[in-house]
Specification:
Elements (H helix, E strand, L loop, with lengths): L14 H33 L11 H30 L6 E8 L2 E6 L6 E4 L21 E4 L4 E7 L4 E5 L4 E5 L5 E5 L5 E7 L11 E7 L1 H14 L1
Parallel strand pairs: 1-5, 4-10
Antiparallel strand pairs: 1-2, 2-3, 5-8, 6-7, 6-9, 9-10
Protein name: Cytochrome c oxidase subunit 2
Catalytic activity: 4 Fe(II)-[cytochrome c] + O2 + 8 H(+)(in) = 4 Fe(III)-[cytochrome c] + 2 H2O + 4 H(+)(out)
InterPro entries: CcO_II, CcO_II-like_C, CcO_II_C, Copper_CuA, Cupredoxin, Cyt_c_oxidase_su2, Cyt_c_oxidase_su2_TM_dom, Cyt_c_oxidase_su2_TM_sf
Length: 230
């Protein structure tokens, strides 16, 4: 999860998020190089005492400032397109979960299991246990097995919502009447927090997302208990 005064991204918990972090560092280094070059040129032009009033054009300079930006854009675009295709790739998921956004809570339906569905509401501040996080804890978590491809079908029941979990590199709009889907793999056990990222009304900031990733054996035990109690 995010920490106070944090400047960078959250730690990656999925292969897609790792690729996004690498691309961010790649683009940031290019940005630093460009900024340094531009700053050097500005300082050099302001401080120099040399002038050439007869210079009208320079084919070499025009070729450089045309080709160099094109090369930089290619170096940024190719990794970006690769990640976009990776994010849209869905190959034989082991588990499918339908996620529905409501005003103002989430509901989850495990379509591979019978009678395994529940609503997930934010825990009010006065009901939080010691160590729990304000505005981030939910009464029912979305439990997933680690190292397993998971497909999430996302829609909304009333208005626009957005299901986003930064550590997993997921942000997908929940649109009434439309079914969006994404796939991801959680790399390690843990609890990952997210929030609705589309302004959806008065209680927009009170519908958190909590994903709990556990080993497969623990997930099977949890699903058995949930179905038994239903």
């Amino acid at each position: 999860m995010a920490h106070p005064s944090q400047l960078g991204f959250q730690d990656a918990a999925s292969p897609v998020m790792e690729e996004l972090l690498h691309f961010h560092d790649h683009a940031l280094m290019i940005l630093f190089l460009i900024s340094t070059l531009v700053l050097y040129i500005i300082v050099a032009m302001v401080t120099t005492k040399l002038t050439n009033k007869d210079l009208l054009d320079s084919q070499e300079i025009e070729m450089i400032w045309t080709l160099l930006p094109a090369i930089i854009l290619i170096l940024i675009a190719l990794p970006s397109l690769r990640i976009l295709y990776l994010m849209d790739e869905i190959n034989d998921p082991h588990l499918t979960i339908k996620t529905v956004g409501h005003q103002w809570y989430w509901s989850y339906e495990y379509t591979d299991y019978e009678n395994l569905e529940f609503d997930s509401y934010m825990i009010p501040t006065q009901d939080l246990a010691p160590g729990q996080f304000r505005l981030l804890e939910a009464d029912h978590r979305m439990v997933l097995p680690i190292d397993s491809p998971v497909r999430t079908l996302i829609t909304a029941d009333d208005v626009l919502h957005s299901w986003a979990v930064p550590s997993l590199g997921i942000k997908l709009d929940a649109i009434p009447g439309r079914l969006n889907q994404t796939a991801f793999i959680v790399s390690r056990p843990g609890i990952y927090y997210g929030q609705c990222s589309e302004i959806c009304g008065a209680n927009h900031s009170f519908m958190p997302i909590v994903v709990e990733a556990v080993p497969l054996k623990h997930f099977e035990d949890w699903s058995y208990m949930m179905i038994k109690d239903a």
